[in-house]
Amino acid sequence: MTTLKSLEDPVTELSGVGSQRAAALKTLGIQTIADLLTDFPFRYDDLTAKDLATVSEGEKITLKGTVANEPAVVRFGRKKSRLNFRLLIGHDVVMVTFFNQPWLSQQLTAGQETAVYGKWDAVRKSLSGMKLINADKGASFGAIYTVNKHIRQSTLAQLIKQAYDAYQDVIYPLLPPYLLQKYRLLDRKTMIHDLHFPKDPQAAKLARRTAVFEEFFLFELRLQMMRAKDHQAAGTEIDYDNEALKTFIKTLPFELTNAQKRVVNEICAAMKRPTHMNRLLQGDVGSGKTIVAAIVMYAAITAGYQAALMAPTEILAEQHAKNLAEVFADMPVNIVLLTGSTKAKARKTALAHIASGEVDLIVGTHALISDDVIYHQLGLAVIDEQHRFGVNQRQTLRRKGQYPDILAMTATPIPRTLQITAYGEMDVSIIDELPAGRKPITTRWLHSNQVEAAMTFIRQQLNHGQQAYVVTPLIEESEALDVKNAEAIYAHLSENFAPDYQVGLLHGRLKNEEKEAVMAAFKAHEYDVLVSTTVIEVGVDVANATVMLIFDADRFGLAQLHQLRGRVGRGEVASTCILIADPKTQDGIARMQVMTETTDGFILAQKDLELRGSGDLLGTKQSGVPDFKVGDPVAQLNILQIAQEEALALVEQPNWQLEPDNRELAGYEQHQLKQHSTLD
Ligand code: ADP
Ligand code: MG
Question: In terms of residue numbers, what domain contains 175?
Fold first, then answer.
């Protein structure tokens, strides 16, 4: 009896894979034949002969040749060693050096054929060895896989070969044929073959290009499907009262910027459409997103709906509730605040009023999405500083009530890569203008031995009646240490500024009433200096504060530094941000430098992406960017963009479908081929 083979078969179908080896493979995320076949190599050892004169300085290469002399190990220091030998490659002789791998001498003897992967020193004509490679006789271009201590390179390569041989007939096409033609991509079987067993570098390159496109395309297809579904979902048609809205806008103490007016119009138009709104409002720190939120929430309220505003921290939620109470002082709007620390009794009343529709505007933290909060008629939900929330929390809010319209606000400017990946399913409105009269923020980077100078500067500002924030170091592992640090710095500064100036302290361990009291006191200028952990990172607004000093600034990511810096520069007086840091890494130095060079959040976000790579975007694991296996959404943005366009075009075709199980995208042959394009 024959059973049908499928790429979804477990790896135990292969000979030589028992439960132990299966467990080892699982540590690499490999459970099925498909996993194995798409475990693409991270590089190749190119053992073809090279013209060494053309290899550039510092390039990583693999050289194959004959070991010319018995390797010698020289030890120095306690644990350090150097292993040298000459490698004969045709007529060239290359000196190879391995540092701190003395055991390699046992694997090398004079006269032996070997290959070495390493870094080329063009001046000395020598190779700094990184890895010794067991050169397979005959093979001149071999795949190298990521492995770990549970499984060896050669074992994995052998299993992949076995899997390919046994399953090649059930590798079905995934991309529609018209895309393969249009972008000159390989069919899936060839792609998988050439990724693992390329005959030359060119074949591997072509295969990788296809794999990257495939990965991006499938990802985008899922996003675009979600988006299409959103648009179809029975959304709320918010028929707001335009006259009431105009009247309300006239009561504001300032004129809206043109950008604010434009996004208000965009959002109102989207709310009015019967389809569901899922929109991102992007605007740099201080661009005035809150008032935009207030206006569109009011619009929803004039249409008889409730509106909710969800913030990531209690301080921020409280600040919003207070501000909105002022903004709506003369309007018939009932506001309630709901956070994790709302007392049981108040909470009970609030829940009753939310359910009955007695309150129109609900402000809070993620408490807003807990199960027992039942809305009367939620029409619009606004998520402030949305990058601080996980994707799941966004989803939960969307499912509340009758699928309310969603406006997610973020101060973190979103580079194209992220727009396409993390937020690909959303529409975007952008506030690209700051309110007039803002003075630019000057940023200085000082070393820790210059703290006194910084203190002198702060005192000068205080003498002018300004206020200052002092942010204490971030100890990622421990909130307790954060607090300890903050307390130490607070004690020091209190003494330093006594008796002329008052210093306040804010940290995560304070009770909420305490936090609120400290913030209120700072806002009321009862404190001149506020020492704080990063709890003030987002949203807090005190226009009279013009100095932001950040200790150990190199511990923070660029996005976070930008957010912190955004706490100043909110008033009429020019502001300064002082970074205290002695960075030890290139990356740290680069971050400090770019902070002193620009206040443009967009440039910073792009830089952040480049410095961090796409692994940990914007310093938060919650940024929602998926882990791509082969594609790099930053470096290969152009391919990502094409994949998005094509996925969108496909989803917009009337009768398109994707069978999730057979995963074949058949039936698009009728699609007219457009002119040939290339991906790179
Ligand atoms: P963010 O976009 O960072 O959330 P906020 O909404 O906190 O910014 O606004 C920052 C400050 O700018 C607030 O004090 C707000 O009242 C003020 N503001 C907002 N819009 C304008 C405007 N059009 N003109 C003047 N000030 C404004
Ligand atoms: Mg804000």
Answer: 11-43+143-212
